[in-house]
């Protein structure tokens, strides 16, 4: 996979992870309630769920592109429309819905359980991966390239939430996240719209 293409994938995965939502609230809740270690455990277990969905998506799209190329092309266009819709929603979010997180007593086991369940229980996550990864899967893609895509999604997700859990040891981190949630939404929206426009103008992979 060319470096420029990988950077596009990494950027979208990063913005997806950073977007305020139930996953971020879950990590914050366990960190505030149990300390740094439960927060890190929640972030790492969430990344496992993300990796599972990414793996299923890559395998499924790889088989589809070989057997039904026209259907794959249709999915790519639908995926581009979905990415554009997500981008518009992120831009329109503005300052609405500031991030709130309340700590509750928790353990490492509870944090691990919740991390996986929040990831696997979010149906929008699999839709996001289908929309996103359909732009990066190619006919005859090597196993190494597939592993790279899955690891990129996992490591970026894990890295962000671990940083959040570690950063909460500093009192200014949570207020910063709350104050800048709208800017994260806006950056995510611009990136998703740009990717959707790139797909419409031509294939990402040439």
Describe the structure.
- This protein has 206 residues and is mainly α.
- It has one domain.
- Helices cover 80% and strands 0% of the residues.
- It has helices at 3-18, 22-34, 36-67, 69-93, 108-120, 123-133, 143-167, 173-201.
- Helix 3 (36-67) packs antiparallel against helix 7 (143-167) and helix 4 runs antiparallel to helix 8.
- The radius of gyration is 17 Å and the shape is globular.
- The mean pLDDT is 76.
List strands and helices in order, with pairings.
Layout (H helix, E strand, L loop, with lengths): L2 H16 L3 H13 L1 H32 L1 H25 L14 H13 L2 H11 L9 H25 L5 H29 L5
Helix pairs in contact: 1-7, 1-8, 2-3, 2-5, 3-4, 3-5, 3-6, 3-7, 4-6, 4-8
- How many structural domains? 1
- Computed over alpha carbons, the radius of gyration is 17 Å
Strand content: under 5%
Instruction: Note poorly predicted spans.
Output: none
Output mean pLDDT: 76
Characterize the largest beta sheet: strand count, sense, and whether it forms a barrel. none
The backbone outline, from C-alpha atoms, is globular
How far from one another are the termini?
A: 11 Å
| Count of alpha/pi helices | 8
The count of strands amounts to 0
* Element-level helix/strand string: HHHHHHHH
The helix content is over 70%
- What structural class should be given to the helix and strand makeup? mainly alpha
